[in-house]
Amino acid sequence: STAEFDVRPGGEVHSFSRSLGDYGCTFTYSAQGGTNEQWQMNVGLSEDSGLFSCSIWRPQGKSYLFFTQFKAEVKGAKIEHAMAYSQAAVGAQSDVPLKQEEFEITETAVSHREGKFRFELSKLMIVAKTPRDEL
């Protein structure tokens, strides 16, 4: 399911969450400059319910806001793969990933790395493994 939300500048910390059954995704950030931007969050579950995914992005491809911090957190699942991008794919453009040193990934979150993050963010993508036992 996909939901639209506004990313608001002004330096305050905001967050937006979606959940799907036992699993959830929360995007927390603060940003400066410009005006509100429309972003989207998509949460999904694989057919066998073994993987929970959460993507957060600006459909226009590039955000012009200056992000001072960001964190995308999943609940109920453990991150298997995550990536952050300074630019999201649009038309012939492809995703531009952040440099490895700009962000960090833990079992449950992907977040900016203080002092290394260059304030540009347009997309976050997480794939997490659910605790469901294999039969």
How far apart, in Å, are the first and last alpha carbons? 27 Å
Which strand order spans the largest sheet, edge to edge or round the barrel?
Answer: 1-4-5-11-7-8
The count of DSSP E runs of length 2 or more, i.e. the number of strands, is 11
Order of helices and strands: EEEEEEEEEEE
Quote the beta fraction: over 45%
The low-confidence parts are none
Helical amount? under 10%
From the helix content, strand content and strand pairing, which structural class follows?
mainly beta
GO biological process, one term: positive regulation of angiogenesis
GO cellular component, one term: extracellular space
Protein name: MYDGF factor
Pfam families: UPF0556
Structure at a glance:
The mean pLDDT is 95. This protein has no helices and eleven strands.
Strand-helix topology:
Blueprint: E1 2-7, E2 14-20, E3 23-32, E4 37-45, E5 51-57, E6 66-75, E7 78-87, E8 96-97, E9 103-105, E10 109-112, E11 123-129
Antiparallel strand pairs: 1-4, 2-3, 3-6, 4-5, 5-11, 6-10, 7-8, 7-11, 9-10
